[in-house]
Structures are given as C-alpha cells and as structure tokens.
C-alpha cells in the first residue's frame, strides 16, 4: 500500500460521526495485540492549552534522556505530524504499513454497522507506533472531553487537566461543572493528577480524582488563585508560575515557585502560557518519578526553552510583525488580543478564515481593533463563506474589509497593505494557519537528472508508484524540481507544466479525499528544459491569483540558481548580497578541524596543548585552509557532555593562542568555534572567533540571540541528538527532503530572531542520526540544499559511513578525499575535514574540472 492510498482511507473515516465511549478503539487495540500494555502513557486534557502543555511536557522528558512519543491534533500540513517519536514525525511508510494491516478489520466493522472514526483509528495508530518504536513514555493530548475520548483506552501513569470552560456543550455538558467532571475522569488510581483549574472546576476535578484514588497536584498560572502568600498553607500550589513577560519576538519568561524555583524561558508568548508551563513541569516531574528517572533542573530549563509549537501565536516576520494563530472562538480571541498587546505596532491588518459552525460575531468583537481585514476560505467544506465573515467583521467595527477567497492570496494582500511598523494577524482556524504556513515554508528543490535512472530516483521519494515512475521517467529531463502543495494546486501546476511542453507527476489524494483531508500537502515533481520551466512561471504569473502567485515566485527563484558544475553554487547564487570576504562566496572553502578534546573520534588529544594547537593551525594554513574550526566538546556517539566552564577553558585560550598565526591574526583565515552552548559561543566570539558552528542547529533560543547580537556567520546543522545517541534508530521516508524541511524550520526561527540569512550556512549533519546509506544519499544530493538559499557545508571526514565501504576507523583518509571531491562537484560550499592538504587538492581538482566543463559549454555556445 502507498501512503496516498492509506491517507485517503483514513480521511474517508471522517464521514463517521463521533460516538462516546472507548469500546471501539479498545477493540482495535485488541486486534493489534494490545500495544498499549507495553508503553507508559501521560494524558493531558483541558479546554485550552492542552496542546502547548503536552508539547512542553514531551520536550522536558526528552531532555531528561527518555525516548518520548507525542500525539497531538490537529495537524498543520501532514497527517504524520500528529504522531512523533523523539521529535520526529511518523514516516509515511509506517502509516501505510499500519493502514494495510488494519484496513480489512475496519472494513468488516463498518459492514457490521460499527465503524470507527478517523480520530479513533489515528489514536490507535499512534499507540501502535509508540509500542513499535519502544518509547520510554508517550504523551497524549486528549481530543474531545476525557472520559469517553479515544485516548482513554490507555492506562496512564500520570494525567492532567489544564483548565475548563464552556465548550462542545452538546457533547460534554451544559455547565462548567459537567464539563470538568467529564474531563477529570481520565484520572486513574495511584496515577498523579495535575490541574491548573480554579473555582468550581477545581472542586469538581478534586472530587473526581479523589473518587478514582489519584493524588492531585495543583498548579497555578500568573494571577491564578493560590498564587499569593495569603492562601492557606495546606492549599498552596505545588508549582506556581508567574509570567515575566516577553524577552524576544518569539520567547517569554516564566518564574516558578514551590517545589521547583527559578526563571525559565519558553518559546510561547502570552500570560496564559504560564499556567501551561506549570502544568508541563508538574506532569514531567510526576512522570519522571513514576518512571524512576531523575529530572534535573537543566532538563526542565532546556526542555521548556526548546518546546516550539508551530501555528500557535507563531511570529513569522518582524517587519511587518506577522503572526499566525488558530484562535477560533471568543475566549481564544480575547486571549490572543491580550498577547498581541505585548507588542508595539502601528496599524493591525487582519486575515480571517473560520469554519461555519463558529461564533463569528462574538469572535470578531473579541479580536483587537484593526485598520483593515481580508477574509478567506480554507480548503474544507466546513469553511465559512468569506462574504459572511466580512459581514461579521464590519459589524465588529472594521471599516475596510475585503472578502477574499484563497488563504495565501489574502495573507499576501494584508502584507502588501502593511507598513514595516504594522502588524499582520492571520486568525480564525488552524486550517487557515496551516495553509498560510505551508506557503511560507514551501521549498522548491532541484534534483540532479543525468539519465533515466536519475529520473526514476527523483520520482521515487515523491511516493510515485512503479507504474508512474515507468510512465514518466523518460519525460523527466534536464531540470527536475520537487515541492509539496495542496492537492488541487498540485494538479493545476502539473497541468500547466504539461501545457508548456514539460512533464509532471504527482501522487496525492483525489478530489473527494482532498475535501476530507483539507490541508494535506502532496508531493509534486515538475520537469523540463529551462525554457519550458520559465514558460511555466510566466503562465502562473499571468493566471494572477488562486494561490499560485507564491508558487510562481518560488519556481522562479529555483530557476535563477542555474548552478555551474563544481563547488560554491549556493553561495554564488547570492554573491551580490554576500560579504565578498567570506571564503565560501565563490568557491568551495576548506574548513580544518582543530579539536582540543581528549575524546574526539579521530584526533582526540592531538591539539590539547596550546603549542600543539598553534603548530596544527600553521600546518593547515600552509596546506591552504580557509577556516579553522575549534572544538572543545566531542559529539561522537556516547560522548559525555562537557560542563560550560570546562569547554570555555578549552576553547578560549586556543582561539587566543592561534591569533599568533599571521593568516589567522590578519583575518585571511577565519576561526570557527564548534559549540552548542550559548555561553561558550559568546566567550569564543569575545576571544576572536569569527563563526559559530552549532551542531544542534540553533535549537537553543539563547544561541539565536548570541548570533543575532554578534551578526556573525553561523553554521546550522541538522541533528537529532548531540552528542549522538548510539541507540537511536530514526526512520526517514526521504532523508534529503526531510532534512531540508527540518533545516527550513530552523532558518525560520533564525530569521525571526534577527539573524541575517546571508550569514547562515546549512549542514545536513552526516553521521548525526542517519545510517551510512542515508549519509551517502545526503552526500550525493548535497546540491539540493541550495534550495534553502544558503551556502552548504558537508562534514564527512573520517566518519562511520565509510565503514560501509570496508574502511576501518584508522583507514578513512582516502575515502574522505574521495567524498570531498564528490561534495565539491555536487555543490558543497564548504567541506569540513581533518586532513587539509589532501582535501584541498581534491577541492582544487573538482574546481578545475568544473571550470573546464564551463569553458567547453561556453565554446559550444559560441559555435552555435
């Protein structure tokens, strides 16, 4: 079974109405041999904030060293987002395998008049996946209610209810007390129960938890009951959070008192997030205790700081301030208005798209005052008519309202209206957020196509079945571009590509399935000559609207990178904007490794002495090095983390000492520091370092601030763990596409933090959470990372991938040189190596070959 078939089957289940009870999902789990029995679970329910609390809980537990599953809903751009293991979403292959296994059973149930719903089956899929991947614990965001929710088919080790308000009254009850009782019935005997409820809801959940035999942990958010010293001593919250305000465009700080004291950074802005953070810390604390795992304060601090949650008050740009938020009811709109009040801006321009069953009048009234608004329609049957939304906004007092249609076109209209000091806010539905976000994060990658075999390989990761590959492989010639689009747009783009003489292939949901899926993005490969693809862009521009204007611009950007053979391609594309003093601007630069560690995998201990370090740099300079990368902590598999002060003591004296080498002191050779710690990066920059090389890809928000303030070049690497977890076994559908997408997300965070994109270098992270086969795939296709608009670094020196071709750890020099030549030929702008002289020669040969090919091409052109 192929993924698109599995997704279509699952989305078709949305036609079945929700029924209270867990009997159906329990029957499916029994059919799967009860995978829930082998996994400890955490359940988090609530009217608002449960998704944020679940994400923060998962992040904290991961930082404590656990393998953690996370199940949330809805998804933004792909079904697989709902199920994550250690931060990575479920693969499409795993989804297809699951559906192939359960489909006959589900069909039999439906034929017997007992069909399962989409949410029930996807919940079972998540449980099955967590058991298959053998996670240490899995965090489940409860769907609707609690007692009868599909997630309640498991027996949790800890539970939580964030808060309770009137919602889904037709299903959950007519009063806060009734809804609180339904939600609180996730409580289990002896399993800790955490809540930030107050008032009547608190009384009810305490009563229900007591009846269930669950010990209650009460927490409070900023200004909540029980957060003052005047409360009764025996009823003070175990964790009391105070919102300390915004510290950047995307981050805020909260202070905790009670069982855990301190101030913590969170990548979620808004006073309401204080209570969510308190719930998360309390749940993580109680869960870690149940699993007999130590929860150090560092785990809490790092886990909270790294718990990004896309689409929930997500800042995309700062000039104008551009925010996406899924607030879809009056209460959420009021919370959103309070959060937006923390920002300084002149005029507000709204983009509003909502479902037809929402209270548009009250929601519009609750939103902040706006100078203009554009309404839109997400791609779902349930989406409200933009004309109806326009009437609601005018009734709320907004004079300038335009009834639009397409979400991305509406957002573009609002941005065009805004001045740099204004704010653009897209709101009303997570489905609208998903469409807008997909357009902003879309990446067009070019695939290398030399022959029919290359064409087949280009089509395969896009999910094209063998018959489709056979039909289209001969038509994919010269240039092949891959991207993901909403299904109807992908079909339109494919038709336009064929109309200009090119070819296109997509595998996705049919029209009926798309209406059920809504925001599911499908892969598309468009191919042809440069002239044909330029003609395609012209046709899209002439069409004017319909959500393809941005696609035309993205395709045009990919075509503008008519890369010459040889290194330096990505950097050369932006040469006009790039600092000309950077060595990677117009050629492949060589970065030499200078580890001042006793335990690095290849050169540990070789340069620990300052005299040895200086001598090593002198040899590198003589051999033609462009950048020296100083490292004070090994990230090899199983390496022990180095304390900040120890790492500073290693790298700062080294950086200062090597300034005595003339080429370094003059700036002709740059100095990079290989670190994931903001304090080390700051100290290294003060000591004379020019570049930050972060193996975690700017995961730490404080590192983003350090780099932005220094305005220095930064290497953003893709990794799953640092140091590398030797027991990790990540799964990929297409390793290149997924690493590109992950790096795109990190670049978005860098942009919002104020880091100049022209100073960012991307590194696919060979050896970090990839198999040798995947490493070779990344090496072979490293040119595709030019789609990110940044120079590309390849760090392959002496790594374990060469063990797959029979080279032991002490016999990888020649294999590394071969890899360098291939990387330089295929578009790498920097190669990071231990043996500078040998790899400098490989880079120079690749450049000479590339130059000869260009000259030959120019001569042939002159002859014509």
3D architecture notes:
- The structure is a single chain.
- The protein is an alpha/beta fold and 864 residues long.
- It has 4 domains: 303 residues, Mur-like, catalytic domain (UDP-N-acetylmuramoyl-L-alanine:D-glutamate ligase), CATH 3.40.1190; 127 residues, Protein-Tyrosine Phosphatase, Chain A; 115 residues, no CATH class; 278 residues, TIM Barrel.
- The chain has 31 helices and 29 strands.
- An 11-stranded mixed sheet has the order 4-3-2-5-1-6-7-8-9-10-11, sandwiched between helices. An 8-stranded parallel sheet has the order 27-26-25-24-23-22-29-28. A 6-stranded mixed sheet has the order 12-13-17-14-15-16, with helices on both faces.
- A hairpin with a 2-residue loop joins strand 12 and strand 13.
- Helix 3 crosses helix 9 and helix 12 packs across helix 13.
- It is globular, with a radius of gyration of 27 Å.
- About 3% of the residues have low confidence.
Strand order of the largest sheet: 4-3-2-5-1-6-7-8-9-10-11
Shape: globular
Number of helices: 31
Task: Give the C-level CATH assignment of the largest domain.
Answer: Alpha Beta
Helix content: 40-55%
CATH architecture of the largest domain: 3-Layer(aba) Sandwich
Task: Sum up the structure in keywords.
single chain, 864 residues, alpha/beta, UDP-N-acetylmuramoyl-L-alanine:D-glutamate ligase, Protein-Tyrosine Phosphatase, Chain A, 11-stranded mixed sheet, 8-stranded parallel sheet, 31 helices, 29 strands, 42% helix, globular
């Amino acid at each position: 079974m192929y993924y698109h078939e599995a997704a279509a089957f699952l989305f078709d289940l949305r036609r079945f109405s929700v029924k209270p009870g867990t009997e159906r999902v329990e029957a499916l789990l029994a059919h799967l041999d009860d995978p829930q029995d082998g996994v400890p679970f955490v359940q988090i329910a609530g009217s608002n904030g449960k998704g944020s609390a679940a994400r923060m809980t998962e992040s904290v537990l991961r930082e404590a060293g656990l393998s953690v599953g996370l199940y949330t809903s809805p998804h933004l751009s792909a079904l697989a987002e709902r199920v994550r293991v250690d931060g990575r979403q479920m693969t499409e292959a795993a989804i297809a395998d699951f559906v192939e296994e359960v489909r006959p059973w589900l069909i039999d149930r439906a034929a017997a008049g007992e069909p399962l719903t989409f949410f029930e089956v996807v919940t079972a899929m998540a449980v099955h996946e967590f058991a298959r991947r053998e996670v240490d614990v899995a965090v489940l965001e409860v769907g609707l209610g609690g007692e009868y929710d599909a997630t309640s088919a498991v027996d949790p080790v800890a539970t939580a209810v964030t808060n309770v308000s009137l919602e889904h009254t037709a299903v959950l009850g007519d009063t806060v007390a009734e809804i609180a009782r339904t939600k609180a019935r996730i409580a289990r005997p002896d399993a800790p129960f955490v809540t930030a409820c107050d008032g009547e809801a608190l009384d009810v959940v305490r009563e229900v938890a007591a009846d269930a035999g669950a010990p209650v942990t009460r927490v409070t958010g900023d200004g909540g009951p029980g957060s003052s010293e005047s409360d009764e001593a025996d009823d003070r919250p175990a964790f009391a959070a105070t919102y300390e305000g915004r510290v950047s465009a995307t981050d805020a700080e909260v202070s905790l008192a009670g069982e855990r004291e301190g101030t913590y950074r969170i990548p979620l802005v808004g006073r309401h997030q204080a209570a969510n953070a308190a719930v998360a810390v309390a749940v993580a604390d109680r869960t870690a205790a149940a699993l007999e795992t130590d929860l150090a304060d560092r785990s809490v601090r790092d886990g909270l700081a790294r718990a990004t949650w896309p689409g929930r008050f997500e800042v995309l740009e700062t000039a104008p301030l551009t925010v996406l938020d899924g607030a879809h009811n009056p209460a959420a709109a009021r919370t959103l208005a309070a959060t937006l009040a923390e920002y300084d801006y002149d005029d507000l321009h709204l983009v509003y798209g909502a479902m037809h069953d929402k209270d548009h009048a009250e929601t519009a009234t609750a939103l902040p005052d706006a100078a203009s608004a554009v309404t839109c329609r997400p791609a779902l049957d349930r989406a409200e008519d933009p004309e109806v939304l326009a009437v609601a906004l005018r009734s709320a007092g907004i004079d300038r309202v335009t009834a639009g249609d397409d979400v991305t076109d509406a957002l573009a209209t609002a941005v065009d209206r805004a001045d740099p000091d204004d704010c653009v806010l897209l709101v009303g539905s997570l489905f609208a957020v998903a469409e807008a976000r997909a357009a902003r994060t879309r990446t067009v990658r070019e695939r290398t196509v030399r022959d029919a075999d290359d064409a087949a390989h280009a089509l395969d990761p896009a999910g094209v079945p063998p018959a489709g590959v056979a039909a289209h492989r001969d038509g994919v010639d010269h240039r092949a571009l891959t991207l993901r689009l909403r299904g109807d747009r992908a079909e339109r783009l494919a038709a336009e590509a064929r109309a200009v003489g090119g070819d296109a292939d997509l595998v996705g949901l049919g029209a009926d399935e798309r209406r059920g899926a809504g925001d599911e993005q499908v892969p598309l490969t468009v191919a042809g000559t440069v002239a044909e693809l330029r003609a395609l862009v012209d046709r899209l521009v002439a069409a004017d609207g319909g959500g393809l204007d941005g696609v035309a611009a993205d395709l045009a950007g990919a075509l503008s990178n008519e890369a010459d053979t040889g290194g330096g391609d990505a950097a050369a594309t932006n040469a006009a904007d790039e600092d000309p003093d950077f060595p990677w601007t117009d050629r492949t630069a060589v970065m030499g490794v200078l580890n001042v560690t006793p335990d690095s995998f290849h050169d540990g201990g070789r340069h620990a002495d300052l005299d040895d370090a200086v001598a090593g740099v002198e040899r590198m300079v003589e051999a033609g090095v462009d950048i020296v990368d100083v490292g004070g902590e090994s990230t090899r598999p199983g390496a022990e983390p180095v304390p900040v002060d120890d790492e500073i003591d290693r790298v700062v004296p080294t950086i200062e000492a090597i300034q005595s080498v003339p080429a370094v002191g003059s700036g002709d050779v740059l100095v990079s520091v290989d670190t994931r710690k903001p304090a080390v990066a700051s100290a290294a920059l003060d000591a004379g370092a020019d570049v930050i090389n972060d193996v975690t890809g700017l995961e730490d928000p404080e590192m983003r601030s350090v780099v932005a303030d220094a305005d220095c070049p930064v290497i953003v690497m893709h990794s799953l763990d640092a140091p590398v977890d030797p027991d990790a076994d990540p799964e990929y559908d297409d390793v290149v596409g997924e690493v590109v997408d992950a790096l795109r997300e990190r670049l978005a965070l860098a942009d919002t933090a104020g880091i100049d994109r022209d100073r960012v270098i991307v590194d696919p992270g060979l050896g970090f959470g990839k198999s040798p086969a995947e490493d070779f795939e990344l090496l072979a296709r490293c040119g595709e990372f030019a789609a990110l608009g940044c120079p590309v670094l390849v760090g392959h020196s002496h790594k374990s991938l060469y063990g797959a071709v029979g080279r032991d750890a002490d016999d990888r020099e020649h294999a590394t040189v071969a890899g360098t030549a291939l990387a330089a030929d295929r578009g790498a702008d920097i190669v990071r190596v231990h043996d500078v002289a040998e790899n400098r020669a490989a880079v120079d040969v690749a450049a000479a070959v590339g130059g000869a090919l260009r000259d030959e091409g120019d001569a042939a052109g002159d002859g014509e």
